[in-house]
Design goal:
Largest sheet: 2 strands, antiparallel
Shape: globular
Strand content: 5-15%
Number of helices: 4
Radius of gyration: 15 Å
Number of strands: 2
Length: about 110
């Protein structure tokens, strides 16, 4: 019987995202060390879809898994404040970055 051992992704440093609020104050949110590979695959599968409901669902899933529990309340408050301008385009950009970084893609961790 043949056996193949695989190495899982183990981040060597913490990752964060930063966004400025409507007053110019920077808010920093810590990311989880990783997110499940299946979620990344689901995001990739719907990232080019014309179905906004599927895209919204996976964006919410990624963000829910990516933001650490201690920062979720602050993230939710920040993202729903209309003056902060967290549009669908901003959320998509954030999620794209999060998926790249938390997938263990060395090119994304600049």
């Amino acid at each position: 019987m043949a056996t193949k051992a695989f190495t899982t992704y183990k981040p060597t440093e913490d990752n964060f995202i930063e966004l400025d609020d409507f007053e110019g104050k920077t808010h920093t949110f810590k990311l989880a060390p990783s997110i499940p590979g299946q979620v990344i695959l689901d995001f990739m599968a719907v990232s080019t879809t014309e179905d906004p409901a599927k895209l919204a669902e996976i964006i919410n899933t990624v963000l829910d898994l990516a933001i650490v529990e201690d920062d979720k309340a602050a993230w939710n408050a920040f993202s729903v404040e209309p003056r902060n301008g967290v549009t669908v385009d901003v959320l998509s950009e954030v999620v794209g970055h999060v998926v790249s970084v938390l997938s263990g893609n060395p090119q994304a961790q600049e």
